[in-house]
Specification:
Helices cover 27% and strands 25% of the residues. By secondary structure, the protein is of the alpha/beta class. The protein has one domain (3-220): Rossmann fold. Helix 2 links the parallel strand 6 and strand 7. Helix 2 (71-80) packs across helix 5 and helix 3 packs across helix 4. The protein binds flavin-adenine dinucleotide.
Amino acid sequence: MPNVVVCVKPIPDPRHWDRLFLDPETGVLKRAGIPPALNPLDKNALEVALQLKERFGWEVTVVSMAPPDTTKALREALAMGADRVYLASDKALAGADTLATAYTLAQLIRKKASPFHLVICGNISLDGSTSQVPAQIAHYLGIPHITHATHVETEDGQLFTITMNIKKGELVFRCTTPFLLAVTKDVNLPRLVNVMGIIAAETKPLEVIDARELELDLDKVGLKGSPTRVRGLFIPEIKRRREILTGEPEEVAEELLNKLHEAGVL
Ligand SMILES: Cc1cc2nc3c(=O)[nH]c(=O)nc-3n(C[C@H](O)[C@H](O)[C@H](O)COP(=O)(O)OP(=O)(O)OC[C@H]3O[C@@H](n4cnc5c(N)ncnc54)[C@H](O)[C@@H]3O)c2cc1C
């Protein structure tokens, strides 16, 4: 059965971000005690996969790397319609940067979700927000990648037409499987979970896999295997200017327009 793999990242629930803090020593984001939620764009990625499943009968496999207390959040992916979840979780993986994360996820895909037709990611996570992981996973898997996807079309499930959003327009690609796709929010509207989905999710497989089972090179994972070094942390200073314009309304409006033009706002 052809397989589509979706990379889903559990992130700290944005409703509790006032409790997040950065460790000034290591530069690592401290998430302890904050309940996990699925990265919003990963639900768009999952929706693409579920629509392919409905059309072509493909199986949908979710892969993730996260602490073990994220399994409840990952059940939401099963409730949406995914067939199974593989979660790479191990102390050795803690502190991973994007490269170590991508290496681990690629190895998880190789070991547990291959052969695959397609790997689908969100274009960016809400917490780390580097947008680096999708291209790095594709690199490790040795497949092409298309990011910033706003539209995905296929007639036969093999040849895909993908529209990519760029700053001043769009690029359209034709690509045959296997490849990696990273999607933006414009690609679709993810389905809501219903009661039947929640009940079905309880009995679907969710397997937690450790570093040994993945046969990972331990020099390439976790903080030890992460070449990124946080050199410094600072809170950006936001400078604001204030000016009160006085005079007749027409004069004030004209002066305001001039100032906005000068500042490059209009
Ligand atoms: C020095 C350093 C130390 C760090 N230590 C930690 C730490 O201790 N704990 C921690 O949680 N983070 C840590 N991070 C952050 C961690 O590197 C990133 O969260 C992670 O690599 C993903 O990067 P991103 O969020 O920028 O992903 P992006 O590239 O913005 O994500 C894009 C897409 O890739 C996929 N994806 C990304 N990450 C995952 C994942 N884990 N599982 C499944 N799919 C995924 C999703 O589809 C996502 O939408 C650290 C970062 C640095 C630089």
